[in-house]
Structures are given as structure tokens and as C-alpha cells.
């Protein structure tokens, strides 16, 4: 007689629960959200929409409606903005967020290495759980362009793009731009570094042209033999080839007008995607920058020369460059003060930049320059949004709610926890930590 097979009651239960969650989870992810009665700063041709509604589904903005249109829309969840300002999430840049925790503690810094070169991919060390990230969200920052400062050569590695959700999949794009540092040197000549960059581009271009010519003249059999014989390009060569093909952006720190002109000419000669950082003398070559569509990243608060390369910087640089047709990106390079980006934009407004252009300089202009589907409140764009208590450029204004990819994210940081710990009533001694 065969033994009786007993069926465990746990197994059917697991099957049922699995079926339930398989059905529920997709529904939860596709939950629609409506933010109603908002003053929407779209950073598009639509401008500002009063008492508007933004519909979000699966992390994307699916509709922007007037107050009359929104009455007929049914969503899973509704948040009443009560007339407050809703903007795209702000985008930080040119800092080491997630790579540096405490600047004075070397073991918490992963942004540089003596051996780092053009292939350096610092995104491998990005820490989405850095305590600086929640603090940065307090300033309405939802995405960030992280830049390493590499090794001793001019090539510092690759910039990469992250969101500030704190998730382990926060790196959105890695190896997006090649970071180069040019200009004045404490030892040697700036010409040597400029020449090194030119030589790299020239050599790669000549090698690609030769390979193309050889391939054209070879028979099918010879091509097959050659393909087996020839080595693949080295990693560094592939990076330069990607620059020449327009697959990567050249992100260059430079200030003096003569250096900027050399770089503009290189852009034209090799058809490069070029973004200038710092660019203290940019006003002197604003016509050339505008003509070649070269974006400029600057700090609106830099108004004093830090070297003989930056004698022409001023508080009105952002306004003057924008008026000349240059795409301006505002940045706060201090990793631990990225939350102050909106204050930098506010100071630019105080010195002649319009509010619309200032908001674009920390949202849409960054997104456009780095090819991100963000920075605007428009259909099809990522639902990175910030609801402000008042004018975001005012010092007293706070972030009331913040969404990254349609998901609401907390702005509570370690600073808040410390404040609560030391301001709460307790029978324990003030220095007691448990």
C-alpha cells in the first residue's frame, strides 16, 4: 500500500498570497495622483498656470489641466495644493554628492584617485544612503549631476546622473560626460594641457579616418582576416571615440577667455558636445558661446576674482549671458550645501535675471544640456516635483512636499533627528546618547 501523501496547508496559502500580491502590486505602482489647485510653474511655453492640476501615473506626468478640466478627472489620490507654487524638481550639478561624506575624513571620500584617468567611473562608489542626500532634498533637489575630481592629469573621469530618492538604483545615467580641468597651473604651462587635449582628439580622429579608409579598400575576405588580427580599441580610446561621435559630452572647467575660445574652436572642429564650467570670462566671448550653443555652468554668487583667470566675473554674469542668448546653468559646487541652489538663483534674480530664467537655470537648462527627461512640468516628463510653502527663491520658504518619479519622498534629515533629540524634554543628561 502506498503511503498517504499529506499536503501542507502552508503551500496553498503561499500560492494564494502570491496570486494576490501579483495582482495588487502592479495596481499600486499604477496608482494615479492628482495635485490640484496649484500655481504651476511649468518652465515651458505655457508659463505659469493658476489653479491647475497635474496628473501623475507610473512616475510620469500624464496631463496638466485647468481648474475646469480637472473637475471631470477621477484619480486614486488627490492632494490639494491650496494655491501654492508647484515647480519641477531642482537639478544640482558639479558636486560630489554621494561620493564624499565628510570632507576632512579621507576614508569617506571616493571622488578621486591618483591613478584616475579618462576612464574613471566614480558612480561605482555612489552611496544613495549618504546623510547629505536627505538634507539636499530640503532645498527641493530631486536630481544631481555628480562629478569626480579624478587624478593628476587633465581628465578627471566621468560625470554621472542620480536621483535623490535614496534607493539603491539611484544612478540614472553613468559615464554621461567626460570631465576635464584646464586653465592656470602652479607648475608648468596651460598650453601643455590644451595641447594634450587637442592631440588626443586629433590622434583619435586620424585613426578612425584611417580605419574607415582601410575598410573601404579591403575585400570581404581581407576584412574578416583584419578583424581577427586587429585589437579592439583600448578603453581610453573608446571614450575619445565616443566624444567624437557625440555619444558623450565634454565637460570642461576653464575660466580665461583665451581658453574658452580654444574650446569653442575645438567644438566646431570636431563637432563636440561641449559644456563649460566656471567660465569666469564667459561674458567676453558671449557671442561665440551663443552662436555655437555652448551651455555655461556657473555660481551666481561668484563676484570676486579667485585668480588672474577670473577677472571679469560679476553678480550680473548670469543675467548678461542669458540676455546674450547663452544657456546658463546655475550650480552650487559645495557638496554639503547643494540645498542652497535656490538661494543662488534668487541672488541671480536680484542682479537682473528674470524669475523664469532663474528657474530654468536650475531645472530645464540642466536637463536639456545633459539629455534628461526632467526639468519641466509637461506631459511625458518625469514626475519630479516640488510643492513650496511660498516663493522658492525666498529664504523663509520651505519644501512642503517633494516627489521623485511620482513617489513622495521625505525631507526629514539627520539634522532634524539631532534637533529633536536635543530640544526634547528628557530626564537623561544632555550628553546622554541612548
Strand content: 15-25%
How far is it from the N-terminal to the C-terminal residue, by CA?
Answer: 65 Å
Q: Please state the second-level CATH architecture of the largest domain.
A: Alpha-Beta Barrel
Taken from the alpha-carbon principal axes, the silhouette is globular
Could you list the spans in which at least 5 consecutive residues all have pLDDT below 50? 1-28
pLDDT average, as an integer? 89
The CATH first-level class of the largest domain comes to Alpha Beta
Summarize the structure.
The chain is of the alpha/beta class and 434 residues long. It folds into two domains: 10-83, Urease, subunit C, domain 1, CATH 2.30.40.10; 90-371, TIM Barrel (Alpha-Beta Barrel).
Write structural notes for this entry.
The chain is α/β, with parallel strands linked by helices and 434 residues long. It folds into two domains: 10-83, Roll (Urease, subunit C, domain 1); 90-371, Metal-dependent hydrolases (TIM Barrel), CATH 3.20.20.140. The protein has helices at 10-29, 67-70, 132-137, 190-217, 220-229, 235-244, 257-270, 286-291, 317-323, 341-350, 355-360, 364-369, 414-423; strands at 32-41, 48-57, 60-65, 77-80, 85-88, 90-95, 141-146, 155-163, 171-181, 249-254, 273-278, 296-298, 328-330, 385-388, 399-404, 407-408. Strands 1, 2, 3, 4, 5, 14, 15 and 16 form an eight-stranded mixed sheet that branches. An eight-stranded mixed sheet has the order 6-7-8-9-10-11-12-13. A hairpin with a 2-residue loop joins strand 15 and strand 16. Helix 4 (190-217) packs parallel to helix 7 (257-270). The longest helix has 28 residues, at 190-217. Mean pLDDT is 89; it is low at 1-28.
